[in-house]
Amino acid sequence: MTTEGVGNIDFTLCQRVPGRAYNGANGKKIAVWYDGEVWILKFPPNVSSRPNDQSYSNSCISEHLGSTIFRMLGVEAQQTKLGIHVNGKTKIVCACKDFTCRGTRLLDFCSIKNTVIDSATGGTGTELDDVLLTIEQQTFVDPTVVKKRFWQMFVVDALLGNFDRHNGNWGFLVDEDGHAELAPVFDCGSCLLPQADDNIMQRCLDNEDEMNARIYSFPSSMLKINGRKIAYHEFIAGDHPSELDEALTLLIPRIKALDIKTLISSTPYITELQHQFYLAYLEQRRCKVFGI
Predict the structure, then answer these.
(1) Which of 4, 8, 98, 114 makes an SS bond possible with 123, Cβ 3.0 to 4.6 Å?
(2) Digit-coded pLDDT (tens) for 194-225
């Protein structure tokens, strides 16, 4: 049972789904029935009492916006909805449709990487050459198909400023007969500076150096070259694999045409400051990472 209005959903009274639990570091997660289907409610992490801790307080907004932008750009991604859940306190939550409820299980790329004997590092290693070797040598899904998704995901993550696309949050869906296919893109909670509070957002809007620091210096990709995290803007502007060129050729026209204003304006629960910040941040990344 839910109470739904314009732009908001109350998930409080949704029936819990027994026997389902989810991994992940950022916030609590529960499974509920919504409109006859299983959805994962992602809660914002508890804000630590230690002032130097990063709280990811906007991660639910980031999750929804990031997933929505992937889909708007034509890259298959998890369906999401924003809503509220009341348990003593009212919290904004991101509901993510559980795409493993069709008799499939998620096999993340970390697990797949562990099956490749020639890989120089373990499943968590994110050296680009080693990741690409794993894509070529894994036997679950056609490597050409995986490379196409991998580089398209990289391009959209570059637009969104995703600093946490590690080997555990993308992968394949495998059915009972062992047939595998790419899973929808999921776990976008580390996009769009989820740790930015009102003070940081206002500084970025008021000071170009503050904004540039969060485009050119941080965030970087989780992928590495010789132990150094890849800077999105440098890698896209410099020498890179031809498969990335193919992804850029496909996605840059779509990124240019992306209606950011309408997306942000239609997003519930965000404040006017957040509205201004997300709009400016995406426009600045579109310009300075891709030159468009």
Answers:
(1) 114
(2) 999 999 999 999 999 999 999 999 999 999 99
- Find, among 20, 27, 22, 36, the residue nearest to 85 by Cα: 27
Provide the token pair at 15.
């029936």
| Res 243 pLDDT > 80 | yes
The token pair at 122 is: 């373990």
Average confidence score pLDDT of the chain: 91
The verdict on whether omega for the bond into residue 219 sits within 30 degrees of 0, i.e. cis, is yes
Using alpha carbons only, give the angle 156, 288, 26 rounded to the nearest 5 degrees.
45
Q: Closest by alpha carbon to 145, among 102, 183, 89?
A: 183
3-5 sheet: strands from edge to edge: 3-5, 8-10, 80-87, 89-97, 37-42, 29-34
Alpha helices in 20-85 (DSSP H): 59-72
